[in-house]
Amino acid sequence: MLLQIFLTFFKVGLFTIGGGYAMLPIIQEAVCTEKGWLTDEEFLDSISLTNSLPGPLATNCATFIGYRLKRVPGSIAAILGTICPSIIIILLIAMVFNTAMDNAYVQAFFRGVGPAVFALIVSAVYKLATKANIMKDKLTLVVAVASFALIAFAGVTPVLIVIAAAVIALVADSVKKSKTAAGAEEKGGSNDGSHS
Amino acid sequence: MDLILRMCLAFIKIGAFCFGGGYAAVGLIENEVVKTMGWLTPDQYINIIAIAEMTPGPIAVNTSTFAGYLMSGPIAGILCTLSVILIPSCLALLTAFFFEKVKNNQNVQVAVKGIRPGAIGIIAAAGISIAKNGFHDYFSVVLFAVAAFIIFKLKKSPIIALLSCGALGVIVYGFIL
Question: Which value does ipTM take for this structure?
Answer without folding.
Answer: 0.92
